[in-house]
Amino acid sequence: MDVRDVSFSYGSKKILDKISFDADGRQVISIMGPNGAGKTTLLKCLCKIYAPYEGSVLINGQDMLDLNGRELAKRIAFVPQSAPVSRLNVFDYILMGRRPHIEWSAARSDIDKVSSVIDALGMSHLSLRYMDQISGGEFQKAQIARTMVQEPDVLILDEPSNNLDISNQHTTMHMIEHAARSRGMCTIMTMHDINLAVHYSDRFLFLKDGKVAAFGGAEIITEELVRNVYGMRAEIVHHKGVPFIVPGESSKYEHLADHEHPHDIHDHI
Fold it and tell me: Residue 26 has what pLDDT?
């Protein structure tokens, strides 16, 4: 995917301003920034939920806006932050990912693809359970499985670790990373937790006020970048070559933190 100068507005309010980056197969890219930076809006522009917009989004060199719905679904899979509850069982829910490839009815090969993915993800025991009867972590796994059987070139996820406990966060992120590597998909996702993202991402796109603040590998994650994007002080600690953020005080309280006891700060809030 090649994103070139994408801008988007709600009426007269500009949300995205000339966003450019590229994503290659088998790469995982995390989009990060504070609330309201335009992260989810960007994802929706990347999968044609929001259109038209200024700029272009190319998939293997082809403009996304030139693709019809069926062709687009073969190229891009989108996992939203929350999805409506379904009364389908888990197997049929995952089978829905094959819709762009099915003509009149599901073929044996479609059924086999679903069975293979379910087995690989350790979900066989859930196959006949209804989607509204499984846990949040299991629901997230079912969504990931559905995108895997869809076999897209690009996988786009909005906060895939949202509302998951720490164990399910890492299980889900490992699934996403494995799907990207093993199936050759480029994967683009929004994330809030930088320390989680650095474990599973190749590159990082930081947004601030609808603009690109930084784009690159883990080397771009610096104390200055965190202060610029999030308005907070932080120390960057490297462990086995991976940067981890240890938060400090918000920059708006720096003048207090320097000469008052931390507990006294609450008296000024």
Answer: 86
Question: What is the Cα–Cα distance from 209 to 35, expressed in whole angstroms?
Answer: 10
Amino acid occupying residue 64: M
Tally of CB atoms within 10 A around 115:
16
Angle between helices 136-150 and 166-183 in degrees, nearest 10: 10
| Per-residue pLDDT reduced to its tens digit, 222-268 | 999 999 999 989 898 888 888 888 887 655 545 444 444 444 434 43
The terminus-to-terminus CA distance of the chain in angstroms comes to 45
Q: What is the pLDDT of residue 34?
A: 93
CA–CA separation, 105 and 14 (whole Å) = 44
Low-confidence ranges of the chain (pLDDT < 70): 249-269
Q: Tell me which residue of 141, 154, 162 sits closest to 48, measured CA to CA.
A: 154
Residues sharing a CB contact under 8 Å with residue 35, sequence separation 6 or more, in sequence order: none
The whole-angstrom separation of Cα 59 and Cα 88 is 32
**Residue that the structure tokens 């981890």 belong to:** 244
Amino acid at 114: V
Sequence length of the chain is 269
pLDDT at residue 155 in the model: 93
Cα(83)–Cα(92) distance, integer angstroms: 16
Query: What is the SS3 string spanning 65-95?
Result: HHCCHHHHHHHEEEECCCCCCCCCEHHHHHH
Reference 136, options 173, 97, 165; nearest CA is 165
